Amino acid sequence: MPDLEKSIIVAPDKLGELTANRVGTGSGLGQFDGISPFDSRPLKDLIDLPERYEILEQVGEGGMGIIFRARHKLTGAPLAIKVLHPHLAKNKSYMQRFEQEARAASTLKHPSIVTVYDFGMTERKVAYLVMEWLEGPGLEKVLKSEKTLGTERVKNIFAQVADALSHAHRKGIVHRDIKPSNIIVSLDDKGQEQAKLVDFGIAKIVGEDTEEMRLTATGDVVGSPLYMSPEQCLGKDLDARSDIYSLGCVMYEALCGQAPFKAENSVQVIFKHLNEMPQRPLKLKPDLERPETIEGVLFRCLQKAPEDRYGSMDDLVAELRKQ
Protein backbone atom coordinates (compact mmCIF):
# COMPACT_ATOMS: atom_id res chain seq x y z
CA MET A 1 0.00 0.00 0.00
CA PRO A 2 1.61 3.32 -1.00
CA ASP A 3 2.13 6.15 1.45
CA LEU A 4 -0.42 8.57 0.02
CA GLU A 5 0.52 11.31 2.46
CA LYS A 6 3.96 11.76 0.90
CA SER A 7 4.41 14.84 -1.24
CA ILE A 8 4.72 14.29 -4.97
CA ILE A 9 5.79 16.42 -7.91
CA VAL A 10 4.87 14.92 -11.25
CA ALA A 11 3.66 16.03 -14.66
CA PRO A 12 -0.04 15.20 -15.31
CA ASP A 13 0.80 12.91 -18.23
CA LYS A 14 2.90 10.79 -15.85
CA LEU A 15 0.16 10.23 -13.28
CA GLY A 16 -0.47 6.77 -14.60
CA GLU A 17 3.06 5.81 -13.62
CA LEU A 18 2.44 6.49 -9.92
CA THR A 19 2.51 3.11 -8.23
CA ALA A 20 3.21 1.90 -4.74
CA ASN A 21 6.95 2.04 -5.20
CA ARG A 22 7.02 5.41 -6.96
CA VAL A 23 5.11 7.74 -4.69
CA GLY A 24 8.19 8.45 -2.58
CA THR A 25 10.89 10.94 -3.40
CA GLY A 26 13.93 8.73 -3.56
CA SER A 27 16.16 6.69 -1.31
CA GLY A 28 19.81 6.34 -0.45
CA LEU A 29 21.75 8.90 1.53
CA GLY A 30 24.58 9.53 -0.91
CA GLN A 31 27.44 11.75 0.30
CA PHE A 32 28.13 15.40 0.93
CA ASP A 33 31.10 17.09 -0.70
CA GLY A 34 34.34 16.43 1.15
CA ILE A 35 33.02 13.44 3.12
CA SER A 36 34.49 10.06 2.44
CA PRO A 37 31.99 7.28 1.70
CA PHE A 38 34.00 5.16 4.14
CA ASP A 39 33.57 7.62 7.04
CA SER A 40 31.62 5.71 9.69
CA ARG A 41 30.87 8.65 12.00
CA PRO A 42 27.21 9.56 12.65
CA LEU A 43 25.78 11.97 10.11
CA LYS A 44 25.33 14.66 12.75
CA ASP A 45 29.10 14.69 13.31
CA LEU A 46 29.84 15.13 9.60
CA ILE A 47 27.82 18.30 9.03
CA ASP A 48 30.01 21.39 9.25
CA LEU A 49 27.46 23.87 10.58
CA PRO A 50 28.56 27.30 11.83
CA GLU A 51 30.31 27.11 15.20
CA ARG A 52 27.36 28.74 17.00
CA TYR A 53 25.17 25.67 16.47
CA GLU A 54 25.48 22.27 18.13
CA ILE A 55 23.61 19.28 16.74
CA LEU A 56 22.32 16.99 19.50
CA GLU A 57 20.43 14.21 17.71
CA GLN A 58 18.54 13.30 14.57
CA VAL A 59 14.79 13.39 15.20
CA GLY A 60 13.19 13.06 11.78
CA GLU A 61 13.66 12.46 8.09
CA GLY A 62 11.54 13.24 5.04
CA GLY A 63 11.84 13.03 1.29
CA MET A 64 13.80 16.28 1.05
CA GLY A 65 15.57 16.71 4.34
CA ILE A 66 16.78 15.47 7.70
CA ILE A 67 15.73 17.18 10.95
CA PHE A 68 18.03 17.48 13.95
CA ARG A 69 17.44 18.71 17.47
CA ALA A 70 20.11 21.29 18.19
CA ARG A 71 20.98 24.25 20.39
CA HIS A 72 22.59 27.65 20.09
CA LYS A 73 25.91 27.36 21.93
CA LEU A 74 25.92 30.92 23.27
CA THR A 75 22.29 31.27 24.38
CA GLY A 76 21.44 27.61 24.95
CA ALA A 77 18.22 28.12 22.98
CA PRO A 78 16.73 24.87 21.63
CA LEU A 79 16.57 24.73 17.85
CA ALA A 80 15.49 22.49 15.00
CA ILE A 81 17.92 22.30 12.08
CA LYS A 82 16.86 20.88 8.75
CA VAL A 83 19.49 19.90 6.19
CA LEU A 84 18.94 18.91 2.60
CA HIS A 85 19.41 15.19 2.00
CA PRO A 86 22.98 14.34 0.97
CA HIS A 87 21.78 12.56 -2.17
CA LEU A 88 19.96 15.74 -3.24
CA ALA A 89 22.74 18.19 -2.41
CA LYS A 90 24.02 18.35 -6.00
CA ASN A 91 20.55 18.47 -7.55
CA LYS A 92 19.96 22.07 -8.60
CA SER A 93 16.18 21.90 -8.55
CA TYR A 94 16.04 20.44 -5.03
CA MET A 95 18.60 22.94 -3.80
CA GLN A 96 16.48 25.77 -5.19
CA ARG A 97 13.33 24.29 -3.67
CA PHE A 98 15.08 24.13 -0.29
CA GLU A 99 16.06 27.80 -0.66
CA GLN A 100 12.47 28.54 -1.64
CA GLU A 101 11.24 27.02 1.63
CA ALA A 102 13.67 29.17 3.60
CA ARG A 103 12.71 32.32 1.75
CA ALA A 104 8.96 31.72 2.01
CA ALA A 105 8.95 30.74 5.67
CA SER A 106 11.34 33.51 6.75
CA THR A 107 8.89 36.19 5.53
CA LEU A 108 6.11 34.85 7.77
CA LYS A 109 5.80 35.99 11.39
CA HIS A 110 2.76 34.41 13.01
CA PRO A 111 2.20 32.53 16.30
CA SER A 112 0.93 29.49 14.38
CA ILE A 113 3.78 29.31 11.84
CA VAL A 114 7.19 27.89 12.74
CA THR A 115 9.79 30.66 13.03
CA VAL A 116 12.83 30.48 10.75
CA TYR A 117 15.98 32.04 12.23
CA ASP A 118 18.75 31.29 9.75
CA PHE A 119 19.57 29.70 6.42
CA GLY A 120 22.87 29.02 4.70
CA MET A 121 25.33 26.72 3.02
CA THR A 122 28.34 25.18 4.73
CA GLU A 123 31.81 24.74 3.19
CA ARG A 124 30.86 21.15 2.42
CA LYS A 125 27.85 22.41 0.47
CA VAL A 126 25.33 21.35 3.11
CA ALA A 127 22.18 23.49 2.83
CA TYR A 128 20.69 24.09 6.27
CA LEU A 129 17.64 25.78 7.75
CA VAL A 130 17.51 26.82 11.42
CA MET A 131 14.06 27.00 13.03
CA GLU A 132 12.44 27.22 16.43
CA TRP A 133 12.26 23.91 18.29
CA LEU A 134 8.67 22.78 18.70
CA GLU A 135 7.73 20.60 21.64
CA GLY A 136 4.90 18.40 20.54
CA PRO A 137 3.94 15.76 17.99
CA GLY A 138 2.71 16.22 14.47
CA LEU A 139 -1.04 15.96 14.04
CA GLU A 140 -0.36 12.74 12.15
CA LYS A 141 0.97 11.11 15.35
CA VAL A 142 -1.87 12.56 17.42
CA LEU A 143 -4.42 10.98 15.08
CA LYS A 144 -2.61 7.65 15.07
CA SER A 145 -2.85 7.64 18.86
CA GLU A 146 -6.29 9.15 19.40
CA LYS A 147 -7.96 8.22 16.07
CA THR A 148 -10.35 11.22 16.12
CA LEU A 149 -10.62 14.60 17.80
CA GLY A 150 -13.85 16.08 19.13
CA THR A 151 -15.71 18.83 17.29
CA GLU A 152 -14.63 21.66 19.60
CA ARG A 153 -11.02 20.53 19.57
CA VAL A 154 -11.03 20.36 15.77
CA LYS A 155 -12.50 23.86 15.55
CA ASN A 156 -9.87 25.24 17.94
CA ILE A 157 -6.87 23.64 16.22
CA PHE A 158 -7.96 24.39 12.69
CA ALA A 159 -9.01 27.96 13.39
CA GLN A 160 -5.38 28.52 14.37
CA VAL A 161 -4.04 26.84 11.24
CA ALA A 162 -6.50 28.70 9.03
CA ASP A 163 -5.43 31.98 10.65
CA ALA A 164 -1.79 31.10 9.92
CA LEU A 165 -2.65 30.36 6.30
CA SER A 166 -4.58 33.61 6.07
CA HIS A 167 -1.38 35.41 7.08
CA ALA A 168 0.61 33.48 4.45
CA HIS A 169 -1.97 34.26 1.77
CA ARG A 170 -1.83 37.97 2.58
CA LYS A 171 1.92 37.71 1.97
CA GLY A 172 1.22 36.07 -1.39
CA ILE A 173 2.26 32.55 -0.32
CA VAL A 174 0.15 29.45 -1.06
CA HIS A 175 1.32 26.46 1.01
CA ARG A 176 0.24 23.63 -1.37
CA ASP A 177 1.15 20.79 0.99
CA ILE A 178 -1.20 20.93 3.97
CA LYS A 179 -1.34 17.55 5.69
CA PRO A 180 -1.36 16.18 9.26
CA SER A 181 2.42 15.78 9.50
CA ASN A 182 2.86 19.49 8.63
CA ILE A 183 0.81 20.61 11.63
CA ILE A 184 2.53 20.43 15.03
CA VAL A 185 0.34 20.38 18.14
CA SER A 186 1.79 21.51 21.46
CA LEU A 187 0.73 23.30 24.65
CA ASP A 188 1.23 27.01 25.21
CA ASP A 189 2.21 28.66 28.52
CA LYS A 190 -1.42 28.49 29.68
CA GLY A 191 -1.74 24.77 28.92
CA GLN A 192 -3.91 25.39 25.86
CA GLU A 193 -3.39 23.49 22.62
CA GLN A 194 -1.38 25.45 20.09
CA ALA A 195 -1.07 24.47 16.44
CA LYS A 196 1.94 25.40 14.29
CA LEU A 197 2.18 25.07 10.53
CA VAL A 198 5.52 23.85 9.12
CA ASP A 199 7.17 22.88 5.84
CA PHE A 200 6.87 25.44 3.05
CA GLY A 201 9.02 23.28 0.78
CA ILE A 202 6.62 23.39 -2.18
CA ALA A 203 4.96 26.69 -1.34
CA LYS A 204 4.19 29.06 -4.18
CA ILE A 205 4.99 32.75 -3.92
CA VAL A 206 2.27 34.39 -5.98
CA GLY A 207 3.39 36.95 -8.55
CA GLU A 208 7.00 35.79 -8.76
CA ASP A 209 8.44 34.36 -11.95
CA THR A 210 11.85 33.31 -10.75
CA GLU A 211 13.53 30.06 -11.71
CA GLU A 212 12.61 28.68 -8.29
CA MET A 213 8.93 29.36 -8.92
CA ARG A 214 9.12 27.65 -12.29
CA LEU A 215 10.35 24.50 -10.56
CA THR A 216 6.72 23.66 -9.87
CA ALA A 217 5.04 25.64 -12.60
CA THR A 218 1.50 25.25 -13.88
CA GLY A 219 1.22 21.80 -15.45
CA ASP A 220 3.03 19.95 -12.68
CA VAL A 221 1.05 18.10 -10.02
CA VAL A 222 2.45 18.95 -6.58
CA GLY A 223 1.25 17.99 -3.13
CA SER A 224 0.18 14.96 -1.11
CA PRO A 225 -2.54 12.94 -2.89
CA LEU A 226 -4.84 12.45 0.10
CA TYR A 227 -5.16 16.20 0.61
CA MET A 228 -4.86 17.75 -2.86
CA SER A 229 -7.56 20.00 -4.29
CA PRO A 230 -9.19 19.04 -7.61
CA GLU A 231 -7.37 21.88 -9.41
CA GLN A 232 -4.11 20.73 -7.79
CA CYS A 233 -4.74 17.21 -9.08
CA LEU A 234 -5.02 18.64 -12.60
CA GLY A 235 -1.82 20.66 -12.36
CA LYS A 236 -3.64 23.98 -12.64
CA ASP A 237 -2.44 27.31 -11.28
CA LEU A 238 -3.36 27.49 -7.58
CA ASP A 239 -4.56 30.22 -5.27
CA ALA A 240 -5.60 30.43 -1.62
CA ARG A 241 -8.78 28.42 -2.26
CA SER A 242 -6.71 25.31 -2.97
CA ASP A 243 -5.29 25.52 0.56
CA ILE A 244 -8.88 25.83 1.84
CA TYR A 245 -9.77 22.50 0.21
CA SER A 246 -6.63 20.81 1.55
CA LEU A 247 -7.27 22.10 5.06
CA GLY A 248 -10.82 20.76 4.77
CA CYS A 249 -9.41 17.32 3.95
CA VAL A 250 -7.24 17.35 7.07
CA MET A 251 -10.14 18.62 9.21
CA TYR A 252 -12.29 15.79 7.88
CA GLU A 253 -9.63 13.24 8.86
CA ALA A 254 -9.26 14.74 12.34
CA LEU A 255 -13.02 14.57 12.84
CA CYS A 256 -13.79 11.21 11.21
CA GLY A 257 -10.60 9.19 11.66
CA GLN A 258 -9.95 8.84 7.92
CA ALA A 259 -9.19 11.07 4.97
CA PRO A 260 -12.16 12.04 2.76
CA PHE A 261 -11.12 9.56 0.06
CA LYS A 262 -9.39 6.20 0.38
CA ALA A 263 -8.04 4.06 -2.45
CA GLU A 264 -5.23 1.69 -3.33
CA ASN A 265 -3.10 4.21 -5.18
CA SER A 266 -2.64 7.89 -5.93
CA VAL A 267 -4.42 7.86 -9.27
CA GLN A 268 -7.61 6.44 -7.73
CA VAL A 269 -7.51 8.99 -4.92
CA ILE A 270 -7.08 11.80 -7.46
CA PHE A 271 -10.07 10.47 -9.44
CA LYS A 272 -12.21 10.70 -6.29
CA HIS A 273 -11.06 14.25 -5.56
CA LEU A 274 -12.22 15.17 -9.05
CA ASN A 275 -15.52 13.29 -9.14
CA GLU A 276 -16.87 12.33 -5.71
CA MET A 277 -17.99 13.90 -2.44
CA PRO A 278 -17.04 12.23 0.86
CA GLN A 279 -19.48 10.64 3.25
CA ARG A 280 -21.10 12.79 5.91
CA PRO A 281 -19.03 12.77 9.11
CA LEU A 282 -22.10 11.82 11.13
CA LYS A 283 -22.40 8.61 9.09
CA LEU A 284 -18.82 7.62 9.92
CA LYS A 285 -19.01 8.84 13.51
CA PRO A 286 -22.61 8.64 14.83
CA ASP A 287 -21.57 9.95 18.26
CA LEU A 288 -20.11 13.15 16.81
CA GLU A 289 -20.96 16.04 19.12
CA ARG A 290 -22.58 19.16 17.68
CA PRO A 291 -22.32 18.01 14.05
CA GLU A 292 -24.39 20.99 12.91
CA THR A 293 -21.49 23.32 13.81
CA ILE A 294 -18.90 21.56 11.65
CA GLU A 295 -20.45 19.52 8.81
CA GLY A 296 -21.47 22.53 6.78
CA VAL A 297 -18.02 24.07 7.23
CA LEU A 298 -16.33 20.89 6.01
CA PHE A 299 -18.45 20.47 2.92
CA ARG A 300 -18.05 24.08 1.90
CA CYS A 301 -14.26 23.66 2.12
CA LEU A 302 -14.51 20.48 0.02
CA GLN A 303 -16.50 21.85 -2.89
CA LYS A 304 -15.00 20.85 -6.25
CA ALA A 305 -15.16 24.35 -7.75
CA PRO A 306 -12.91 26.90 -6.00
CA GLU A 307 -15.57 29.61 -6.30
CA ASP A 308 -17.98 27.47 -4.24
CA ARG A 309 -15.61 27.31 -1.25
CA TYR A 310 -14.97 30.04 1.29
CA GLY A 311 -13.70 33.16 -0.40
CA SER A 312 -10.76 33.43 1.98
CA MET A 313 -9.17 31.82 5.01
CA ASP A 314 -10.48 34.75 7.07
CA ASP A 315 -14.03 33.62 6.23
CA LEU A 316 -13.17 30.09 7.33
CA VAL A 317 -11.61 31.33 10.58
CA ALA A 318 -14.78 33.28 11.36
CA GLU A 319 -16.94 30.17 10.84
CA LEU A 320 -14.71 27.97 12.99
CA ARG A 321 -14.72 30.49 15.83
CA LYS A 322 -18.50 30.76 15.95
CA GLN A 323 -19.94 29.26 19.12
Question: Could you describe the 3D structure shown?
Answer:
There is one protein chain. With 323 residues, this protein is of the alpha+beta class. The protein folds into 2 domains: 25-132, Phosphorylase Kinase, domain 1; 139-320, Orthogonal Bundle (Transferase(Phosphotransferase), domain 1). The protein contains 10 helices and 11 strands. Strands 2-3-4-6-5 form a 5-stranded antiparallel sheet, covered by helices on one side. It has a two-stranded antiparallel sheet with strand order 1-11. It has a two-stranded antiparallel sheet with strand order 7-10. A hairpin with a 3-residue loop joins strand 2 (53-61) and strand 3 (65-72). Helix 4 (151-170) packs antiparallel against helix 6, helix 4 runs antiparallel to helix 10 (313-320) and helix 6 (240-256) crosses helix 9. The longest helix is centred in the middle third of the chain and has 20 residues, at 151-170. Residues 11-30 and 209-219 have low confidence and may be disordered.
The H-and-E topology, N to C, reads as EHEEEHEEHHEEEEEHHHHHH
Count of distinct structural domains: 2
How many strands appear in the DSSP assignment?
A: 11
End-to-end separation? 40 Å
Largest sheet entry: 5 strands, antiparallel
Going by helix content, strand content and strand pairing, the class is alpha+beta
Largest beta sheet: what is the strand line-up? 2-3-4-6-5
Specify the number of helices: 10
Query: Which fold name is given in CATH as the topology of the largest domain?
Result: Transferase(Phosphotransferase), domain 1
Q: What is the name of the CATH architecture of the largest domain? A: Orthogonal Bundle
User: What would you give as the CATH superfamily of the largest domain?
Assistant: Transferase(Phosphotransferase) domain 1
CATH class label of the largest domain: Mainly Alpha
Overall pLDDT:
84
